[in-house]
Amino acid sequence: MFHLGWFLSFSTQAWHAPHSDRGGLFPNTDVYVDFARALERAGFDYLMIEDGSFIPDAYGSSMEHSLRTGFASPKHDPMALVPLLAASTEKIGLIATMTTSFYPPFLAARLMTTLDHLSGGRVGFNLVTAHNDRTAQNYGMDKHWDHSERYAIATDWAQAVTALLTSWDEDAVVDDVAAGIYADHTKIHQTDYEGSYFSSRGPLNVPPGPQRIPVICQAGGSPVGRVFASRFADTIVAPSGSIEWMKQYRTDIRAGLVDAGRDPDAVKVLFLTDFIIGDTHEDALELQRRRHAAMVADIEGRLAYMSFASGIDFSTFDLDAPVPPVSTNAAKTTTAQMFAGREHQTLREIASTIIPSLEIVGSPATAADQMEAVMAEVGGDGFLVNSPVTPRAVADIAGDLAPELRRRGLIRSEYSADTLRGNLTAY
Ligand SMILES: Cc1cc2nc3c(=O)[nH]c(=O)nc-3n(C[C@H](O)[C@H](O)[C@H](O)COP(=O)(O)O)c2cc1C
């Protein structure tokens, strides 16, 4: 069996795409509630809400493209969506993105513990270092820290947060009404965390939630990002690529887990995957053909995506010439993946054929065949659906594909635990 997650943006949800829910335009909360319930009926492990704190302006050195087209902006705070979805669902995990570069550890530990209580133990946080100078400037810096220092900060941050989250012993709350004792203060410890970047006295002023340490999710692709994930993550949302690339990625992460003294099966690696589902296999291939043709036609959108990930203004490059070597302090892995093995292609060729992730294309039955084959080959733990929330996408994937997977015994038929951690580690 494998696990399923959905990569969600708290944003415009492809407002101008075919089949978008015009009546449910962002930020209509019903859209998100209906979506979370549909995923829960389908047996998804979690939905993961991505985040960023800036309006992209790398492309064309202007915010114009992002704001005109609703690309990566607007974007609301994902943490605010969690209690709303928790109150509307019972079993599905809710992971929201938080940046280790700008969120103070005490606030992070306290907020996540409160959300863990409110959700009955179903929350997680996706730890990112944030990759854009504009983010850093929004938090008062001139530019972002260097890539390797961002991960040194993230490591210190994760240690500080973990120390705070474990500052109450598991049996510290006595809750003895007859004796009038709420908690045993000898079981609640001053943390006195002193790191290179953070310090916190502690203890936390809230008792541990049902999971004590909410599920930690991570997406680091670079060597330092992978080391960080190996030390702290419970689930990794991984970029996808060729089968060979995914196999290598997972092998590498598993080796890192052993180096970190952890069980390699303790971390669930979900690969970011696009799904194109049709009534028949041929329908799906036709949908894929149309989607790729739309991508080729929207060269500006493709370049803007590349600029967003890399921080490099591709509007200044010659579209019909090979791309000179580029380097970035932003999302290094994503940027490197764009150009890997394409040194002789023109920018136009690269931009119009970049598929951000693995594509599963077919009827529910042939798509399920492909998913089964990918998992058998890669040995991975599951898929992270990469799709805007449109009624059609939800119906295709949660309504049609998931029941087919369940019928084959490839995904759970029911949740076996009440917490996200429990469900994630059930198999
Ligand atoms: C599936 C997935 C989800 C991601 N979500 C976010 C996000 O919400 N916010 C963010 O700033 N970066 C996000 N990233 C980017 C990563 O945090 C990271 O910057 C990127 O994978 C590059 O890895 P590196 O920093 O180790 O080079 C995501 C990456 C992947 C693959």
UniProtKB/TrEMBL annotation:
Binding, FMN: D51, T97, H147, Y151, S222
UniProt keyword list: Flavoprotein, FMN, Monooxygenase, Oxidoreductase
Start and end residues of each Luciferase-like domain: 4-381
SUPFAM superfamilies, per database record: Bacterial luciferase-like
InterPro entries hit by this protein: Diverse_substr_monoxygenases, Luciferase-like_dom, Luciferase-like_sf, NTA_MOA
MF (Gene Ontology): monooxygenase activity; oxidoreductase activity, acting on paired donors, with incorporation or reduction of molecular oxygen
Tree of life domain: Bacteria
One Pfam short name: Bac_luciferase
Family of this protein: Belongs to the NtaA/SnaA/DszA monooxygenase family.
Protein name as annotated: FMNH2-dependent monooxygenase
Species of provenance: Cryobacterium arcticum
